[in-house]
Please model this.
Amino acid sequence: MLGVTSCTTPAADEEAAAPAPAAELPYYAADCAPNCTYEDLKVGYAQIGAESEWRNANTSSIKETAEQLGVELLFSDAQQKQENQIKAIRTFIAEGVDVIGHPPVVETGWETVYQEAANAGIPIILVDRRADVPEELYVSYIGSDFVEEGRKAGREMAKLLPDGGNVVELVGTVGSAPANDRAKGFREILEEYPEIVILDSQSGDFTRALGKEVMEAFLKKHGDEIDALYAHNDDMGIGAIQAISEYGLDPGTDIVIVSIDAVRGAFQAMIDGDLNVTVECNPLLGPQFYEMALKTANGEELPRWVPSEESVYFPDNAAEIIETRLY
Ligand code: AHR
Model:
């Protein structure tokens, strides 16, 4: 377990002259600091669940990297429930882990349990998703810019609908950072294209099954009025593709589709002509997570955000690229 103290404060005379300092961040260091190695680390990872291909790739990356590096990993699957993630974090605190990795299923409601971790001297690294908590309650965020992903999706949608059209939106888990931010970024771009209208918007909870179910409901309600689908992840998009085919329309042609993640299933859908664009969201965060965990254990300050590098993919070279995809 790590010890926690406050950062050093400037000398009193400097303090009088300097502008108001930023909020002080707690300082963590493990007993083995500054010489901890990966083999010294005991880490807890409070995973969200197994809702998507993306999530499974993230889990594999976290588990496989721990094994390669010799890190002792306590792993928990919350089955997409916030209360299970909170329980897992409390278990990790009781087990005396050195660092906790946490992709919060939703943005709010974490302050109490994060404070408990801080009181126990255990730093939290947010992985994949941000939480809406004061800065001092986590040491770093490793992951994507979800607003930018939404903007990229919006730009591609505008290219696919040069004469405008009606879009339906499959939203991710309600209250989650990717659902909030991907909706926001997409709308930001669409403001420049008033002839593109969001006809309907509903959550499919990031799962293939709900993506299909909600798309069926959209088709029943709006039928041929739908020109395009924006799915906050590939799994919901793939579920929707099935619904569109079963309805008797041609996905990718009668209804153009933009989704997010760039998992292998999306590349296959592009090869099959069913999906028009996938915006990448990188789940292979294991190596960066353990690198940051080791640094914080050794008493080093971490960057507030370790951003992922991501691209946009199209059908024209999907067959070539699918061979190189790791997830
Ligand atoms: O937080 C990342 C999102 O969560 C992915 O886009 C989605 O597939 C997953 O379930």
Remarks:
- The first helix runs from residue 12 to 17.
- Residues 6-17 have pLDDT under 50 and may be disordered.
- Residues 51-52, 54-55, 128-129, 178, 206, 233, 235, 260-261, 281 surround alpha-L-arabinofuranose (CB under 6 Å).
